[in-house]
Amino acid sequence: MLLHINGPFGGGKTTTAELLVERVPDSRLLDPEEIGFMLRHLLPDHPGDFQDLPPWRALFATVAAQVHAFTGQTLIVPMSVLRREYAEEILDGLRVEEIEVRRVLLRPDRAVLEARVAAHDVAPDHPEANEGARAFRRSRIDPFYRADREWLRAWADLAVDNTDLGPAQVVDRVLQRFPELTRNRT
């Protein structure tokens, strides 16, 4: 099984995913950005968002299937996907690979998200890297809320308003909605 945690950049996906890995037996974190970093290295002449690269979308499904087949573990995947056609392409690839998918959407209030983005430090010793990360995340706020209105909420199996919820509370809601994540697999 693959648990996709979608939401805005800075919305708590990775923190939630890390806590889920601690609470879901026999699970592991799969970070799709690692596939993107590899492609950036291989395809330096194609700058920009690696989600725009068709090889990234295909490779994500293949890597997820191979890791799942090799480990037998539930994969917990924090990944902002804001373009419906990309989400469908990724989901289709996972279906071909016969991986069950559960989709969670984190949706904090805009003011809370903006405050989180403004306060986020990715590299405490490199202020220029922090500002670059913040600028990228700010540039994705409007597209997130547009996608949320247009299709994301309906596409998710569970949408969680995490404006006033801490990550542990979000994890509790996810596990309540998907009890199969914590059942023993023999």
Automatic annotation (TrEMBL):
Protein name listed in UniProt: Uncharacterized protein
Superkingdom to which the source organism belongs: Bacteria
SUPFAM superfamilies: P-loop containing nucleoside triphosphate hydrolases
InterPro entries linked: P-loop_NTPase (IPR027417)
